[in-house]
Amino acid sequence: MWTLAGFALVTQAVVAQKLREEYPWYTTGDEIHSAIQELSTNCADADFQVSTRSAVNGGANAGQQVEIDVVKISKKGSPGEKKAFFVFGEHARELISPETGLQFMRTLCGQGGGRNRELAERVLGSTSFVVLPNVNPMGRKQVENGAYCKRTNEDSVDLNRNWGDQHRDESRANKDDEMNPGPYGFSEPETQSIRDLVKEENPDIFLSIHSGAYFMGTPFGYTDKREPSNEEEMENLLAPISEKYCGGSCPYGGLAEMIGYKSIGCDIDFVKEQLNTKYAFTWEIYIGESARHFYQEKAHAHNENREMNDDAKQFFWSNGLNLLQNKDSTRKYQSRAHVMTPESEERVEDCFEQFNPRSEEETQQVTENWSGAFLTLCDEVASKGKAPTTSSSSSMEASPPSPTTADGSSTGSGTAASPNSKDTSKDTTSKTGFLLADSVKQWSDLFDKDGNPATENALAAYTAQANGGSGSDTNSKSQDTSQNPILHDYEQMQDTNPLPKVGFLSAFDSLKQWSEEHRGW
Question: Which residues contact 483 (CB under 8 A, 6 or more apart)?
């Protein structure tokens, strides 16, 4: 006679079997859980603690308890002063995200690739980690059973659109939509657990790891008209990482601009605005070849100070206008088609190709490469404010670049550094002086017709704000605008009459160059 426990064991075996048959090198959610339990007893280089966060589902699967593994890693006897909080696997189909999380934890325990071991040892001296290796365990089980297009959780809610009610897209709520934000903010047990934990930990760095695109994003996802006050500082951290770990081919900047559409209700916006986390990022670490070149073109256009080619412009323009709503849309633009199509109607073969490597070799390349990038980010944050030393700066030189393609571009797995990469030393130097306005009116208000400052006080106030004079690292450009009439006018203009943008470029690229040539005022 069948028992409930026996049925559960059989079901679990079937779930693991589908993924195992087609992509046997991938680790299942249950195997990830077992692997971290083993690491807790075999982590020579660090203190490795494992616990579980539980919350009860109140939605379609009411009463079901959802458990999320929580791993805390720090140097034995001497935890680092900085704290990093990493979230893997918010979207179930993005198998490469938890896979990379597992590789990262092994690296911190001295079990990773040789080229990252020295870096990991140094980073543990400065940074403690909270790692959530698989935050959508129930949705992932469906993916392991062959539902390779499953993005959402057990209630068909997009966990990365469920982060509160401050920014929320009601038009998608409770619909058969990949970006269904749920009935209300934090309605899901998974986001409740992550929110509570990140509040308790109060990290310096929050990093959410995804796939299905190829970039390193900063807040904000809900708009491309605003940015955090320390946006420039965050981008200065990302520039050399882009060069080293993807040959300069993964763009970086505001999330909404990078991906081409609004991510309303996402995690990094919440932790930046509500928790004042200084460094908050979404990294998209893998996309299939059919759409990867659009992101590469975006990065190279920015580096070369030119417009993107027409195909890339069309791709990101279509993303922003939500034009690609049919699953039969040209494969050329299938990245957006996935987002705009109900999960049940998507092509399984297309989904796996877009979100995950399809060979064991490439999977290994991606996990090792981005584990190094995670470490480098933490190393660079920890070294900020310290006198330059060989050890603190060596993370960008810890290993030789991986082989590139014939034209010097990334191999596609994010492992290559181009031999013709642009020198980013100027890009990564902290800039002072002028924060350029995003409109001609705002810029012209600062100067008279002869090019001299209109009023000394006004220009001084604007420049102080540009250099972080407010002392805040967590709020958007509009903070305290009531005390600065120039910034107040700027905020109003941002909401009502923004200039059109193309890729990374705007009408102010030329003004930026002009201003830098006239800093002698």
Answer: none
